[in-house]
Write a structure and sequence with these properties.
Elements: H1 6-15, H2 18-25, H3 29-43, E1 48-50, E2 55-57, H4 59-84, E3 91-97, H5 100-116, E4 120-126, H6 133-136, E5 140-144, E6 152-159, E7 162-166, H7 168-174, E8 188-190, E9 195-200, E10 203-208, E11 213-214, H8 218-226, E12 231-235, H9 236-244, E13 249-251, E14 261-267, H10 274-286
Parallel strand pairs: 3-4, 3-5, 8-11, 8-12
Antiparallel strand pairs: 1-2, 5-14, 6-14, 7-12, 7-13, 9-10
Length: 287
Amino acid sequence: MIWQGLEEFMQVAEQGSFTKAANELDVSTSHISRQLTQLESRLGTRLVNRTTRKISLTDAGHQYAVSLKNIHQALFDATDQLQGTQSAPKGLIRLSGAGDFVANKIAPLLAQFINKHPQVKIEINFSGRNVNLMEEGFDLAIRFGRMQDSSLIARPLCTRHMSLVATKHYLQQYGTPQIPDDLQKHNCLMAITNRWRFNINGKIKEIKVQGNWRSNDADAVKQACLADLGIAHLAKDLIQPQIDNGQLIYLLDEYQVSDNATWLVYPKKDLIPHRVRLLIDFLLAEF
């Protein structure tokens, strides 16, 4: 009895529709409605708001759906863990990340992993926000900077050294900053944050900058910099080719901090699917 109606409710929560849930389970919409009504009656609370046009989860329904999803995933992981030690890894791995590092460094390694384990599927979600791994169903994420979320396990992959850069034309027109505070007088091309960190006399100081260009894509910031728009704060490996050919010039290098690590993060849980554990070990070994 305890399981009755749970699968129907989970499909309604995921599909956002009785009709779509019924199609997914190959049953009638009346069956979905009846099971959901009985489930709400047993629980003594409303899970779904029903209108003539659409349905939506109540607060209780949303919390219940998240809990059920975690339980369902735990059951799946337990089976996968058992079978994984006895057979080739298979199944879907969902990874979240953004930027040139994920596209140019991580994606090729994921392709190598798939070649080694062809029954595994990879889904990469390029998002600039820090997704909730558990609630949104992600196994792993690539994150950059200082880690603050204590609910995640964070494994360092590498340190990305940052640099300030600008074109010779921009500097001729607006002058060359001599100390980090001078940046407040310049047009700064921002990526994730408008607070840039520097090492000044052995202490870390944040400088709040401003400018007329902002993008969560580092390559877009680089292109704006190459177009003489202003000063950018970018990873050295991204702009090294333009430094080498003279298109960009390093600025204030002696003030740069060196604690900007790139992290592989994943939820803290007892059971990690075999395929995910293999990928974690693979990425850590490669770096």
